[in-house]
UniProtKB/TrEMBL annotation:
It comes from the Bacteria. CDD domains: HATPase_RsbW-like. InterPro entries: Anti-sigma-factor_SerPK (IPR050267), HATPase_C_sf (IPR036890), HATPase_dom (IPR003594). Residues 1-27 are annotated as: Disordered. Keywords: ATP-binding, Kinase, Nucleotide-binding, Serine/threonine-protein kinase, Transferase. Residues 34-147 form the Histidine kinase/HSP90-like ATPase domain. Signal peptide: none annotated. Residues 14-27 have a biased composition (Polar residues). The keyword Transferase applies. This is ATP-binding protein. Residues 1-11 have a biased composition (Basic and acidic residues). The keyword Thylakoid does not apply.
Length: 158
């Protein structure tokens, strides 16, 4: 087994690869599995949602949620086989559903127990508090953590 690259070292160039569906209702980007990708994803997401005239509160919440999901993927999981993370979002009737797919980790993502003194471990609790629904899908190709902001998604939450 080969070791995964360190999250702070570039896997590839800092370029964000992007793609839109033909209906412009969804967007997928692939980013390097590293901490600096969090700000790249935030920027692309916010610009995209603003261009679709999504409500400002929903944009703000989606920005926080996607930041937590990408941060968690870098911190707690492995990259996909190409060394990247897959980030996808879609907008329908003012509801934004975001998802981050990684190569999986040692355990299924779950909110950490509530504690006042821990310096970290609040990411999924933040996601849970901002999202209308959220969940985890795991398969042999990796792990996807998703959340809907601004209303319910068509998925079943965990």
């Amino acid at each position: 087994m080969t070791a995964a690259p360190h999250p702070d070292r570039p896997v590839r160039s800092a370029t964000v690869s992007q793609g839109r569906s033909g209906t412009d209702s969804s967007r997928t980007i692939r980013v390097a599995w590293r901490a600096t990708s969090v700000s790249q994803v935030r920027k692309v997401l916010v610009e995209d949602l603003a261009s679709r005239e999504v409500e400002a509160d929903v944009v703000d919440e989606a920005e926080i949620v996607i930041s937590e999901l990408v941060s968690n993927a870098v911190r707690h999981a492995r990259p996909l086989s190409d060394g990247n993370l897959r980030v996808h979002w879609k907008v329908k009737s003012g509801v934004v559903e975001v998802e981050v797919t990684d190569g999986g980790g040692d355990s299924t993502p779950r909110p950490a127990p509530r504690t006042i003194w821990a310096p970290s471990g609040r990411g999924l609790r933040i996601v849970r508090s901002l999202a209308h629904e959220w969940g985890v899908t795991e398969d042999r190709n990796g792990c996807t953590v998703w959340a809907s902001v601004g209303g319910p998604s068509r998925r079943r939450s965990r």
